[in-house]
Amino acid sequence: MTYLDFLPQLPFPANPLALFGLLLLAGLIGGELVKRLLHLPRITGYVLMGMLLGASGSGLLDDKLIAEARIFVDIALGLVLFELGRRLDVTWLKKDRWLLATGVLESALSFAFMYFALVYFDVKPLFAAVAAAIGVSTSPAVVMLVSQELRAEGQVTERALNLVAINSVIAFVLMTMLLSGVHHEYQAGWITVALHPMYMLAGSLALGYAACMLALLLARWLCKSAERHLVLLLALVAVTVGAARMLELSVLLALLALGVMVRNLDRRHDLMAVDTGRVGQLFFVVLFVIGGASLQLSEMAAGGGLALVYILARFAGKSIGVLSLTHFSGVRAGSAGLLCIALTPMSSTALVMVQGTADLYPEFGVKLSAIVLSAVLILELLGPIAVQFALKQAGETNEEKQQ
Amino acid sequence: MEFKSSHECSVGVELELQILNSRDFNLARDAADLIGLLEKNSHPGLIKPEITESMVELNTSVHRNHDSMVSELRQIRDAMVTAAERLNVRIAGGGSHPFHNWSDRRIYPTERFKRLLDVYGYLAKQFTIFGQHVHVGCPGGDDAMYLIHMLARYVPHFIALSASSPFQEGQDTAYQSSRLNTVNAFPLSGHAPFVQSWSEFVAYIDKMRGFGIIESLKDIYWDIRPKPEYGTVEVRVFDTPLTVERAALLAAYVQSLACYLLAERPHMPSPDIYLVYSHNRFQACRYGLAGNLVDAHTQHSVGLREDVLATLRRIERHAAELGNGAALQALAADIETGRSDARWLRETYKRYNSFNDVVRLQSDLWMGRAAESP
Predict the structure, then answer these.
(1) Nearest to B93 by CA among B328, B308, B368, B278
(2) Beta carbons of B108 and B52 less than 8 angstroms apart
(3) What domains can you pick out in chain B, each with its CATH number?
(4) Least CA distance to A223: which residue of chain B?
(5) What is the mean pLDDT of residues A15-33?
(6) Which of A159, A259, B288, B294 has the smallest C-beta neighbourhood within 10 Å, fewest atoms?
(7) B136 pairs with which residues across the strands?
(8) Which residues of A have a CB under 8 Å from any CB of B?
(9) What's the CATH code, domain A39-393?
(10) B109:A269 CB<8 A
(11) pLDDT < 70 positions in chain B
């Protein structure tokens, strides 16, 4: 006992709130610097700041702290996927079937290209398939956030977001199907092989559906008030993310399902189209800083060459898909090319899809990282720049167009 | 500047329309894609850009009566709806968007619109309001000048009958037509000078050009102006109605009225019409058909509703000859029952308590998807 026992002991225990605030500040500064000095999207700055603080840089943000920040990352992902789901308009896909066809074709081609490219370079087919499935999805977070930052509106923006929603769903379904293969590879019992993917798929959809019904019911009861509806949606996003974690379901699919359903099942238009983006902004910054911190430059050495092959195969598959069908949708000439560029981003959010599997079978996770992580590293930095370029070229940002 | 003669009492319509997103029904920015897509498919009439990317204008061809006008308008509308659906945007009528923010608007990138932004600053973006223009054919320039000064008396009729802009930026303005308040801000808005012959008018325009105030008639935003290259008088005070059917009724009214005025020449033009002009115009904007109108010819104040009904009776014969009899009866019936677009918008808002829903239903109505009652 001393007189100074009331003072805190070193080292200070990690405090999630302080961590959140510090990550936010770091991201804010990084984003602003990159924007001012390099005229690049702020997101690139968040990621760079993350890299500086994380394993590739100073190492301040270690695995333990990253795990502490998991909750904020989950909320951010939940919001992004929910918003993305709300952009997927089934009525549109019925009226413009070419858009749906484009989404399916670019997903299928990019999967095939990546898979065969990796197999050609002697990657085991199962790993190649899982890596290819991850690559099918374009980062929802990057496309959503860059379009939000630039306040972009128009056909390229809307179509890009819908294609991202489509390829995210396809990537997820592919991943869930491949999960059986992974289980089999690691000699899980046949019941697991069959039931786990089914549980993931059906359970996540059911969770999304339940949350959606609750949202519509409460929205009707609350009457039309943008403020109350915003709180309602934020609450349901948080609940759904938490429930998906508790039930070992897919956060990604449950939230995407919630978004798609509130948009498309709300026949009476009870729910207002409130924008969760402003609140989400806080979490999105943290999402990208943590994303950057998780990236390891050392992976580049291990998987650099292969990653390049993977990226090129992915880009080729997506581009051929988009270029061959977009014309039929009747949009302005040049839109198809810009859409190809806008679909480039890949981010560590894609890895969330394998996280479950990697947790179950750590060895599998390590093997997969070698292939995918370097690609993620490159595209997490280049992706936002590509999207910004595409939306600016399309003339859909909030800047006045030049003649 | 020569006035090209055209068939007396022929009629054509321009409608400025709202392009909406189908998410929250705010204005969208898809004019270029929509116009591009419509160019690929054949349809009657013309589709053109307007000052901001959230607007699109349709032009009909020249018509002799209401029936052919309404059928062409429906065809153009259907073509637009099909194209809009492929782009996942919606189209709506109405003189103003109930809740958009002018600062979100972007100028449609052509040389002329860019120059308007340079000259008028924020007014160019606030000009994202939606009007109907009706062209009536005139045999000659002198007739056109006569018609302009005669139609000036009826401007409050046109405003009150078409009023569909009660809301601006998410607020009830208390006006039936708030759109014209935006037009008033432009220095070259207002009415034509009181000159009675085409040669005097040409001299006036030449003088204005000499002062360097205008380059052409295009720079002038009067409520009624001559369009010598078409050989028409263009009435520009209408809010775009909520349906193409209503737009056709209004066109039939102007056409029948013009026909009556040109055929019977009931009054000599008097400069007094412009003494009462602003008062009458304001009454119509603010109160719609419940406003009053000071008649410069008789110097009496009359209720606007009664004046419109009396006018409809007076021009009945000419309307019937044109084949517009039924159309004007329909218009009269709406007036008797108090039905108006502004009222529909207010009632819809009262019922749903959300501007997003108002615009959604407004676009259902224009796209021909919904019954009329809110």
Answers:
(1) B368
(2) yes
(3) 11-366 (3.30.590.20)
(4) B353
(5) 90
(6) B294
(7) B11, B233
(8) 86-87, 89, 91-92, 95-96, 151, 153-155, 158, 223-224, 269, 272-273, 329-332, 395-396, 398, 400-403
(9) 1.20.1530.20
(10) no
(11) 371-374
